[in-house]
Amino acid sequence: MSEPKAPIPAPGDTYKGWLFKWTNYIKGYQRRWFVLSNGLLSYYRTQAEMGHTCRGTINLATANIAVEDSCNFVISNGGTQTYHLKASSEVERQRWITALELAKAKAFRMQAESDDSGDESSPPAAGQGGGSRNSEVQSTLRTLGSKVEDLSTCNDLIAKHGSALQRSLSELEGVRLEGQTSEKIRQVTERATLFRITSNAMINACRDFLSLAQAHSKRWQKALQAEREQRVRLEETLEQLAKQHNHLERAFRGATVLPPSQSNPAIDNKGSAPVKGDASDEDDENEFFDACEDVQEFITVPADPKYHRRSGSNVSGISSEMGMDDGTASLDEQSVASNPESPQSQEVVPMRKRRTRIPDKPNYSLNLWSIMKNCIGKELSKIPMPVNFNEPLSMLQRLSEDLEYYELLDRAAKCHNSLEQMCYVAAFTVSSYSTTVHRTGKPFNPLLGETFELDRAQESGYRSLCEQVSHHPPAAAHHAISERGWTLRQEIALASKFRGKYLSIMPLGSIHCIFEKSNNHYSWKKVTTTVHNIIVGKLWIDQSGEIDIVNHRTGDRCHLKFAPYSYFSRDVARKVTGVVTDKEGKAHYVLSGTWDEKMEYSRVMQSSRGGENGAEGRQKTVYQTLKAKELWKKTPLPDGAENMYYFSTLALTLNEPEEGVAPTDSRRRPDQRLMEQGRWEEANAEKQRLEEKQRTVRREREREANRSASPSEEGKEPADGAEEVEIASEPSETNYKSGHQDNYKAMWFERRVDPATGEPTHIYTGGYWEAKEQGNWDSCPDIF
């Protein structure tokens, strides 16, 4: 569509039209509607926003206007506001320059003609408030004028009476007769009296004028200072409101799942230029890497247009140019969707219908007396924690929730390129935290020997098994295998530190993912989970730290950074950034997103070191990337999730009773089942029974393993039901690697040294699924 030509501006007219405004390096120039009126230049996203939402305004009275080239020009007020604008043609640019210069000259004249009130940013017609201030000034001026007239009158009277008094004194000197003396003295006395009265009036009038002038001078100075301070506060408030508006707008767009905007044809190559645009611009919602020195280690900018033209829907040509080991298609979503072997393209017929609801969480208040009465007469190490703090799932089931987005590993298994595969593995790593954002309830700590199976072979192509292999320190082993070519295994122990206001949970151990077709072996560790407002306030969870994903076969790496939440940060909350590099350290992909919503990737076309963006001698890497595409997006929670412990669709099915599972399976745990049914008092009683039973089993096992143990030390160990308060069992990286102290041999896992990392870990030995098919559970301990 051709735009209607704007009229040539005339002095004093309001000038409107479309211009392209620079936003950020991701979106470049964006089309905006600009309005020039009363010496102010304002802009909007569309014409429809003129009635309610102004995106920014700059005062031309103090602004500088500079021309960059045939179509570009810059407007800056010398402070934080700088607009980099681009017209559609040189003629259009000249029209805008003419209009801006005329408006600037007019605004400067209005400022020069205004009074000394200091209100430089207000137009002449300031509305009702301006009219009230104008009438007050006029009234003060009239009062001062009347005082000046009084002073003038007194001056005339003093001059008149002074001359008369002088004449009387002269006449008095020539008097010789006594008869005339009394008369002259009387006249002198009268004139002196008149002069004194007039002088007093003059003095009083001067005093009144002086006090009035001083009072109003101080008042005007205070008013001027107050107006200046108020202006600064308003500017700061507007800036904060603009930031909040940006954040709310991003949150709204993320909640309504708006489609991504199309790339703008007006984007120029700005790779070598510094960051442009004011910081409060509304178009930075897709800016993945901010330039804050203390947070980000790199910056991304749009790649040269030649890469976009050559990429199209398949960037295999670029893969070969970037030195990759093959020319296969990259992470284009169409390559997965069009693959006839893709699990998404096959019609999945579930073998059974899973439940979609559990009983609503009871609204029980936490009664401290009900907790304390169960502690009377007990040792501190044997005090049970009530189920009020729990959710009706065990830690083994929470560990199995890592497979919520198993499709990411299915897609990774189909990748022929290890760097592309790394992107999917990284997205899977981040996705495992998405279920924790609202889950403030503590899962049941598993009993020693407790297991949990997640058999989704018919529905999703994978089987998963978890077992609690140690209690001192507490550790769980997990093994999942998929018929689509991947295996996931991990051993996780939790170390926690109470900091007063928050609780830090540090997972120990590594996670391994092996792909059968390529033999790529990936490993990584989890980040720290922090639970805030432990004592007072509403609980909320944050994830922070760094993850290094390593491909042990090729040497490829992915460095992910989970930014901790900060009230003062301008970044989006729960932000995650990352870079995928090969064994030589060359970057190929940039990852960005949030751990509770989605992850996106951008292909790196070129990288360089940016010295001017560094601080304290450090330099940032600037990556030129293609347009970002989505890797993973969180599935919305089911309806009524807030009443069901904020469980996801998968979590709702984890504790669903199933036939044929092992007698040690978490689904058979009675206290957990009673809590799910809302019978919390019975659940607390059953939980104490299980803990006491585990104490007895532990004592018997230690007695058999070590006959020479001191009798005084027997019977004082904490229970294997880890819901109790434990004093000396806090795991650490040192005692976790040194071995376990339970004298317990796991049923389905064996402790070995991992060949890839060299760390001791529990690896699945097999036999569980065969035992399930045969229904042979004779070797399973009786733990419930």
Structure commentary:
It is a single chain. This protein is α+β, with helices and mostly antiparallel strands. It contains 15 helices and 27 strands. The chain is elongated, with a radius of gyration of 40 Å.
Brief synopsis:
The protein is α+β, with helices and mostly antiparallel strands and 784 residues long.
> Which geometry do the CA atoms define?
elongated
What's the rounded overall pLDDT mean?
Answer: 77
Helicity range = 25-40%
Number of discrete helical segments? 15
- Rg over C-alpha atoms, rounded to the nearest angstrom: 40 Å
How would you classify the helix and strand content by structural class?
A: alpha+beta
Spatial strand arrangement across the major sheet: 4-3-2-1-7-6-5
Strand content: 15-25%
- Which consecutive residue ranges, at least 5 long each, have pLDDT under 50? 1-12, 115-130, 256-295, 309-345, 611-616, 712-729
The major sheet is characterized as: 7 strands, antiparallel
What is the CA-CA span between the terminal residues?
Answer: 74 Å
The counted number of beta strands is 27
Which secondary structure elements does this structure contain, and how are they paired or packed?
Layout: E1 15-24, E2 28-37, E3 40-44, E4 56-59, E5 64-67, E6 72-76, E7 82-86, H1 90-113, H2 127-173, H3 178-256, E8 298-302, H4 305-311, H5 316-321, H6 333-337, H7 368-372, E9 390-394, H8 395-400, H9 407-414, H10 418-431, E10 442-444, E11 451-456, E12 462-471, E13 474-482, E14 486-498, E15 502-508, E16 511-515, E17 521-524, E18 528-532, E19 540-551, E20 557-562, E21 575-581, E22 587-594, E23 598-610, E24 620-625, E25 629-633, H11 649-654, H12 670-676, H13 680-705, H14 733-738, E26 749-753, E27 760-764, H15 768-774
Parallel strand pairs: 8-24, 9-10
Antiparallel strand pairs: 1-2, 1-7, 2-3, 3-4, 5-6, 6-7, 11-12, 12-13, 13-14, 14-15, 14-16, 15-18, 16-17, 17-19, 18-19, 19-20, 20-21, 21-22, 22-23, 23-24, 23-25, 26-27
Helix pairs in contact: 2-3, 9-10, 12-13
